[in-house]
Amino acid sequence: MAILKIARMGHPILMSPAHEVADPTDPAVHQLIDDMVETMIDAPGLGLAAPQVHVPARIVIFRVPEGERSKDAVPLTVLINPVIEILTDAIEDGVEGCLSLPKMSGMVPRHRRIYYRATAPDGSSIEREAEGFHARVVQHECDHLDGVLYPMRMRDLSLFGYEEELVKEGCEPE
Ligand code: NI
């Protein structure tokens, strides 16, 4: 296990689409996932995508703790080659941060309900419906696989800034 270096916004790896993983059960893939988990927990963060650790592969990990932002906790989940389907036109604004933009946050619109499917590291398939914060985290992480960072989704850049300043100014609603 190893803690990996996280690429920050501006690095080209974060702007390029990632490749499909040919064999999700490959031990090299499992090694990468173990290192991603260690890196995410160390950061600490709620999610991490392989391009953020300089690997252009379609792998994301995330967890949703129970709390103010989410009624239901989602345990640590690994998605390989994930595909998202939008289930509603409803859009919700929410505050996001990203390990590739340390200390910053912004108000990002996301689809409220999604369905996603992916392959798990053991080769089985994962299919879930998600809403609210869970859906937000999955959309954020999967965007990384297409070279999209959350500021690129924002509608109002006046709501983008350093976390500490936004909290001071009362722009952090959650
Ligand atoms: Ni991110």
Question: What's this, in brief?
Answer:
The chain is an alpha+beta fold and 174 residues long. It has a single domain, classed as Alpha-Beta Complex (Peptide Deformylase). It is built from 3 helices and 8 strands; from the N terminus they run H-E-E-E-E-E-E-E-H-E-H.
List keywords for this structure.
binds nickel (II) ion; alpha+beta; five-stranded antiparallel sheet; single chain; Peptide Deformylase; 174 residues
How does this model look, in words?
- It is built from 3 helices and 8 strands; from the N terminus they run αβββββββαβα.
- With 174 residues, it is an alpha+beta fold.
- The protein has a single domain, classed as Alpha-Beta Complex (Peptide Deformylase).
- A 5-stranded antiparallel sheet has the order 1-2-3-6-7, with helices on both faces.
- A hairpin with a 5-residue loop joins strand 6 and strand 7.
- The termini are far apart.
- The model has no long low-confidence stretch (mean pLDDT 94).
- Bound molecules: nickel (II) ion.
- Residues 98-100, 140, 144 line the site of nickel (II) ion.
Write the layout of secondary structure elements.
Blueprint: H1 27-42, E1 47-49, E2 59-64, E3 74-86, E4 91-96, E5 104-111, E6 113-119, E7 125-131, H2 132-144, E8 160-162, H3 163-168
Antiparallel strand pairs: 1-2, 2-3, 3-6, 4-5, 5-8, 6-7
The structure holds nickel (II) ion.
